[in-house]
Design brief:
This protein has 98 residues and is mainly α. The protein has one domain: Multidrug-efflux Transporter Regulator, Chain: A, Domain 2 (Orthogonal Bundle), CATH 1.10.1660. Helix content is 60%, strand content 4%. It has four helices and two strands. The chain has a two-stranded antiparallel ribbon. Strand 1 (39-40) and strand 2 (46-47) form a beta hairpin. Helix 3 (50-64) crosses helix 4.
């Protein structure tokens, strides 16, 4: 299955840091904490996608709201679970007769 354009890694970490106004070390820290997993080239270079940028922006928002990285991780996890459950509910609604 081909990755969508939003999931294709095209940005280097230096570009991402500049786009988001943060440091490369912060981005690496978020990766070490499991908050995101960028794609990698065969040589191991990180390549960030539009989806990764969205996650990094959300991390920044949550940090600005005063959450620590553990709190950020939990919120991101719950948001993913919530989106999955909404999709399942929508599928169930479209399958069941009313």
């Amino acid at each position: 299955m081909a990755a969508s354009d939003s999931d294709r890694g095209v940005y280097a970490i230096s570009v991402v840091a500049e786009l988001l106004g943060t440091g490369q070390q912060n981005i690496r820290l978020y990766e070490r904490r499991g908050l995101l997993t960028p794609g990698r080239t065969l040589g191991g270079t990180r390549q960030y996608s539009e989806s990764d940028l969205a996650v990094l922006r959300r991390i920044g928002e949550l940090l600005d709201e005063g959450l620590n990285l553990a709190g950020v991780a939990k919120v991101l996890e719950l948001e993913v679970d919530n989106a999955r459950l909404r999709r399942e509910l929508e599928r169930a609604r479209t399958r069941s007769p009313r």
